[in-house]
Amino acid sequence: MPRPSPLRRLSRLVGLPVALTSVACVPHAPRPVDHLLPAGVTVIGHRGARALAPENTMAGFALAADSWGLPFELDVHLSSDGVPVVVHDETLDRTTDGVGFVDETPVATLRGLDAGSHFSAAFAGEPLPLLRDVLRRFGPAVVIDVELKNPRDPATVPTLAGAVVDELEAAGVVDRVLVTSFNPHLLAAVRARNPAIARGQLTGTFRGADLNPLEKLSLRHLWLNGKAVPDVLAVEADRLSRGYVRRMKRRGYRILAWTVNDPDEMRRLVEYGVDGLITDRPDIALQVVGQESP
Question: Which terminus of the chain is less hemmed in, N or C, by CB atoms within 10 Å?
Fold first, then answer.
C-alpha cells in the first residue's frame, strides 16, 4: 500500500482539509485569563512536583498545593470504561505496577495499582488517581492545568473531551482550570461542550515526534488555531525567544514555558516575559521568581 501523502496525513490529523496560509493569517482570539494567571510569573508544578514526588499522584499534588500553594499540571487518559484517569503514558508499565494500555484497563483495576514505588519505597502504595478525586481535593484551593493526552483512537476524541468536561462541571471548577492539549481536536471538542473553560494549546519543537514535516509545521506555527481557539500558549522552552514571547503577548496570549528545571533557563525565560514556568522543581522556581520556598 502506498504511503499517504503529507497533506493527506495532515488532513487526517485535523479532520478537515487544511489550506496552508501564512502565519499572519492564523486567527488569534485569546480571552483574558487573569483569574488563572495573575500578574507576574506563576510557578506551576509539572505532574505535581515530578522531581520531588511520584508524578501524577496525590502525594505530588499535595506537595505543590498544600506545601507551597501552587497550581499544578496533570495528564489524563480514559480507562476502558470511560473514566478519566490521571496518568501520563498511554501504558501503565513505567509509573505503576500494572501493565498494558490504560484505555484497555477498567477503572476498578486501575484503582488498585501502585503508582508510587517506581519513585521510591517511601511512596509504596500511592494509588493512581482519578481526575474526579484530584478536582474535589485540590480544585477549590489552586488552579489545575488538565492536559488531555492524545488518544490512540482518534474517534474517541469527543468521548475524552466530554468525560473530562463532565468531571470539571460536577466538581464545580470550570473557572478554576486550564485545559491543555497538543491535539487541537481535543481543544475544539472541549470548546464545543463548554466554551467557558479556558483552553491552552501545547506546542514545541516536535523534535523526535512521530510526525512528518508538514504536520510539525502545522502544530508548531498554530495553523489550527481556528479549531482550538486557545487562550494560553504552553510552549516548549527550547522554542521560546524574546521575540516570540513579545509577538504572542501582543496578540493577547499568556505564555507558559515547559518543562523548565534549570535555574539559569528559568531566569532567561522570566526575562523574556513568560507568564508561567511549568517545572519539576517548583522549589527552585519559587526562589528564581523571588518567592520564598518553605
Answer: N
